[in-house]
Amino acid sequence: MLEDQVNSVYLAIGSNLGNKIQNIQKSIFFLSKKISITQISGYYETPSWPDKKKPKFVNIVMHVHTNLNIIDLYNHCLNVEKNLGRLRHGKNEPRTCDIDIVDFNNKVIYDFKNNLFSPHKSMHRRNFVLIPLLEISKNWLHPKKNIKIINLISKLPLRDLMSIKKI
After folding, report:
1. Residue 9, CB half-sphere, CA atoms under 13 Å: how many?
2. Which among 86, 1, 79 is positioned nearest to 34, based on CA atoms?
3. Which of these, 65, 76, 80, 78, lies nearest to 4 by C-alpha position?
4. For residue 29, what is the enclosing H or E element?
5. Is residue 2, in this structure, part of any structural domain at all?
6. At 77, phi and psi to the nearest 5?
């Protein structure tokens, strides 16, 4: 990949600890040091998964341009999470900040060494990714499944569609 190539990327940011909206805003600020933000969805609230007793999440999706390759972007996201106090205690634990690369250049990428996949391997089942993504990219097409975003959303269980709300 050419170092000066501009990459088109969708990132998902979520928080369910502390001041969630402020955590997301700080994430955006620190991410913007190495990326150019073109669009940001509204804020969406969802129950924590898989344990609904844990604090609710606030999530957004944003479209960005960057000259970083996928590994450097991934590392930048991890550094932002760490700087905002994310501790990795275990899977699905509450966190101040979670940043996922949802889609990188609308290409299928597998990097098993870094456990990095584009599109994100679970995004097609996540209301908190699909609904905000639809808001900013109505014509987005899943690069691996070749399915339009509206069709992915229509496959979500009704409880997932009912449990998300724009705030």
Report:
1. 32
2. 79
3. 65
4. helix 20-31
5. no
6. -60, -45
In a domain? residue 47: yes
Measured from the Cβ of residue 5, the count of other Cβ atoms closer than 10 Å reads: 11
pLDDT per residue as tens digits for the range 21-80: 999 999 999 999 999 999 999 999 999 977 889 999 999 999 999 999 999 999 999 999
Average pLDDT over residues 140-167: 96
Does residue 110 come out as left (phi exceeding 0), alpha (psi in the -120 to 50 range) or beta?
beta
pLDDT at 86: 76
Does pLDDT of 4 surpass 80?
A: no
In a domain, 1, yes or no: no
Question: In this predicted model, which residue has the larger pLDDT, 161 or 1?
Answer: 161
**DSSP characters for 66-126?**
ESS-HHHHHHHHHHHHHHTT----STT---S-EEEEEEETT--EEETTTTEEES-TTGGG-
For the domain that residue 120 is a member of, what is the CATH number? 3.30.70.560
Q: How many domains does the chain have?
A: 1
**Structural domain containing residue 33:** 7-166
